[in-house]
Design brief:
The complex is a heterodimer of chains A (about 120) and B (about 110). With about 120 residues, chain A is mainly beta. Chain A has no helices and twelve strands. In chain A, β10 and β11 form a beta hairpin. Chain B is globular and about 35 Å long. Chain B is built from no helices and eleven strands. With about 110 residues, chain B is an all-beta fold. In chain B, the strands form two sheets. In chain B, strands 2, 4, 5, 6, 9, 10 and 11 form a seven-stranded mixed beta sheet that branches. Classes of the chains: A mainly beta (about 120), B mainly beta (about 110). At the A-B interface, β5 and β6 of A face β5 and β9 of B.
């Protein structure tokens, strides 16, 4: 069975600090990888996704993530965070051979950016 | 463009009561999903549907039933609510073509069972 680990449950940063959120998954086959963001009181929104090709993917709002296959990781990064980035971030994985997009989510990382 | 709409947004129930959560999408998506979100546990799939008239169990289906009578609607039912079902429920939908289509989420329904 697939699983996703997000080791940082809570992260507190000051504005302009750099961000890196870890995401590791366990699955031996080919996967699609996603990062979703949930702003306070809102629904989940897609931040970025990786299917194939360049392992460094860029998403909205200056976020990027790097897929490292050998480490089963898909870490999310942003060079300089803003107060408006305060949100909960979810990594998600789906195995390509399922024939169906059954996403497995990590437990989430709650980011607080202080002004 | 409404996207995915969930009703109601909030509800308080007493143990043993029943209710139905409604999810409607206007994007002509084939796939629809119901998740529950609990602190420290992320999102867990309750049930899903790959098309009108078909449903399947997800990771945590016990205590819930679903129906997909129309392509645009996916209903989640609680026959006899229990305090353990206190949660935030999210509906999502996606296209069928390819497994790399992102899911689009509704705003959630916050349900409390007393």
């Amino acid at each position: 069975a697939q699983s996703v680990s997000q080791h940082n449950h809570h992260v507190i940063l000051s504005e302009a600090a750099s961000l890196e959120l870890g995401c590791n998954y366990s699955y031996g086959g080919t996967v699609n990888l996603f990062w979703y963001v949930q702003y306070p009181g809102q629904h989940l929104q897609l931040l970025l996704k990786y299917f194939s090709g360049d392992p460094l993917v860029k998403g909205i709002k200056g976020f990027e993530a790097e897929f490292i296959k050998s480490k089963f990781s898909f870490n999310l990064r942003k060079p300089s965070v803003q107060w408006s980035d305060t949100a909960e971030y979810f990594c998600a994985v789906n195995a390509r051979n399922t024939g169906f997009q059954k996403l497995v989510f990590g437990t989430g990382t709650r980011l607080l950016v202080s002004p | 463009n409404a996207g995915v709409t969930q009703t109601p947004k909030f509800r308080v129930l007493k143990t043993g009561q029943s209710m139905t959560l409604l999810c409607a999408q206007d994007m002509n998506h084939e796939y629809m999903y119901w998740y529950r979100q609990d602190p420290g546990m992320g999102l867990r799939l309750i049930h899903y549907s790959v098309g009108e008239g078909t449903t399947a169990k997800g990771e945590v289906p016990d205590g819930y039933n679903v129906s997909r009578l129309k392509k645009q609607n996916f209903l989640l039912g609680l026959e006899s609510a229990a305090p353990s079902q206190t949660s935030v429920y999210f509906c999502a939908s996606s296209y069928r073509t390819g497994v790399n289509q992102p899911q689009h989420f509704g705003d959630g329904t916050r349900l409390s069972i007393l």
